[in-house]
Write a structure and sequence with these properties.
Elements: E1 2-6, E2 10-17, E3 20-27, H1 35-58, E4 66-70, E5 75-79, E6 84-85, H2 86-92, H3 95-114, E7 117-118, E8 127-130, E9 133-136, E10 143-144, H4 148-164, H5 173-183, H6 187-206
Antiparallel strand pairs: 1-2, 2-3, 3-5, 4-5, 6-8, 7-10, 8-9
Helix pairs in contact: 3-5, 4-6
Amino acid sequence: MVVHRVGAEARLDSATWLGRDVVFKQRVVKGYRHRALDESLQAARIKNEVRLMLEARKAGIAVPIIYSVDLPENRIVMEEIPGTRVKDALEELPKDQAEMVCRQIGDIAARLHMSDIVHGDLTTSNMLLDGDRIVVIDFSLGSKTSELEDKGVDMHLLEEAFHSAHYRRSELYEAVKDSYVKTYPGGAEVLKKVREIEKRGRYTRKE
């Protein structure tokens, strides 16, 4: 078993399980919480993450296959995706290919939001490029909501990721927005909300 990542909320381990290459996602027990409360919260969060992944798949979005959910162990067993993080791929791809990837990203964001799925951490770090497809991972901060504000925050996070992680190619975000609006009939309203969120942020920083 190989440790992929240990975060504040979960530990990811790569392993072979029933002959398949998988990732064990184990939610971290919070020792400072009452045990029964922690177990209840962890179970609710695992159920939410799994539900969002299944709904995203129904919406036509590539996500890892879930093989097993073990609530007593706070663990999800899912398909290991052999791809490269989109965050890294966008820095290496020729411009025309990078634009195609960005149009895919816009389409993915649109399909999520059309299904009222908010990812919660919609950045290129949580997308894997596997051949020609983009696989979306880590729905642990996600929610099911029709709120314009929440969808705006999702797109605001994605835009900020392009201006920070991809600052040398931040113009590629225009392809994301163009694809998002073309796929999602309510996309223009969401992007309008993004501008409002940005203005609020600038106003807060000035104070």
